[in-house]
Amino acid sequence: MRLLVARRRAGGWLLLLAVVCALLLGPAFSASAHATLIRTDPAHGAVLETAPERITFGFNESVLGVPTGIKVFDATGEEVASTASVRGSELFVDLDEEVGDGTLVVVWRLVSEDGHPIGGSLSFSVGAPSDVVDVPSADADAGTDAPFVLGLVRGLGYVGLLVAAGVAAFTVLFLPRDGGADRSRARLRRVARVAAGVAALGWGLAVPLVALYQLGVPVSAITEGSTWSALAPAEYVVPAVVVAGLGLAAGALPASAAPGRTRAALVLAGSVLAVTAPAFTGHTRAATPEALVIGVDVLHLAAGTLWLGGLVAIVLVLGDLARGDSGAVVLGRFSTWAAGLLAVLVVAGTVLAWRIAGSWEALLDSGYGALLLVKVLAALVAIAIAAWNRFTLMSRVRTRATPLVRTALAEAGVLVVVLLVTGFLVDRSPETTAATSVEEPAAAPGEDVVLGQISARISLDPPAVGPATLTITMTDALGEPAEGYEAPRLSLKSGEVDLGEVEVASLGPGVYAGELVLPTGGEWEVQVSLRTTEFDNPVRTVTFQVP
């Protein structure tokens, strides 16, 4: 009989492992990371007859303005008076003074929807390009990497949040309601309140650190009202809800006697409120579909809260409860929950990584991916310890509780490491390379065609089903950027599927690109048409194999 039960348990763990592998190894579609600049007016490198009154930047998602984040310089490095405004996914820069001929450079810094700062520069010329351009370009993307202290403070806040909410929920859900557990209940109440204080400290300290990080301003700017007003409302609301929820949960716990229904409901409501709030900021706001990702993130945080809080509580109270049957009852009840919590944690964590990272490239070639892999490895260690606890040590709890307490403490310690890593993940971008300005893109594998006196390279990146970018790069006989009489026209079709003409935008002299979605694999035919003169319009065709 015992062998049959052991086999069933082993089969359950193997099934869970298979689900994880399927989710990890299955196809992942591209998910948006932070905002990327996709168009400008005028284009990068453009030469205009007269200076524009307004310069426009277009992004692929909403952005937030940064005080003093937009500066315009002439070729000598002198700042040109300007006014910047942001509406949705567009940045507008108005020139407030007349400028002469020569090159102008716009240096910009904004905050994307997921809270990551982005920066870059745009240069164009009036009349003719300047021979020498002396612009402080170092400000273009300086300080877009999250500082170490911010990750440390966030990790501290998450540890306090999960311990406080988890211990409070454990006290209500798992402790016996008789008087024999009053001593344990009082101890857990103190721990929950201390952890809530740690959480309040971590989440509170993170607010000014986030302001310095996102806005790229010196510490002295903390005293300026414009620094605080520039932060997104979520940067204030989320910490406030976390602190309020934990205050409700820890405050509603009784000093010794078991809580009544009203108090128990308040404890659970406060815990849920505190744990739900962090899902409404950070990477989940930029991943798609947003509602699904936020919901999965809430489940992930809730499961982690009960797991870590339960482990801390068991370490603290098992010595008191193990003398009678209460210890075995509590452990059995929590163990049943823990199996479900583990499944939710693994599946929800995998879905979040799938939607936020979006690709194996982001997982393997970015700082975010490296930290995520460290988190996964640490979680696997915790799972291994949990399995040892469940299948080996629980049967001995009536005779020897000490080994179980020690391994539970080790398991909780590993989960604290997981949370500290999470603190650094929050402000890490999952992108391998942030696009900060509209420059000529790196050459991608493609096909070459000749359009009159112009050579063109057509690239499809990535050549795969799903979102892709079609780019044409045109050069003359000397290899210099070339332009036609009109912008090039590109269209795609494959068998009976005809996507028609792709709308392309200029990325710079001789470079045009357009976004599209390939619905199926197979051989895709790209037709390129370029009016080179008023009367000549050569047309060429290239093909791409899409797996």
TrEMBL record:
Record localization: Cell membrane
The answer to whether the entry has keyword Cell division is no
Has keyword Cell membrane?
yes
> Which residues belong to any copy of the CopC domain?
34-126
Which InterPro entries does its entry note?
CopC/D, CopC_dom, Cu-R_CopD_dom, Cu-Rt/internalin_Ig-like, Ig_E-set
Put simply, this protein is called Copper resistance protein CopC
Regions that span the bilayer: 155-175, 195-216, 236-257, 264-281, 301-322, 334-356, 368-388, 408-426
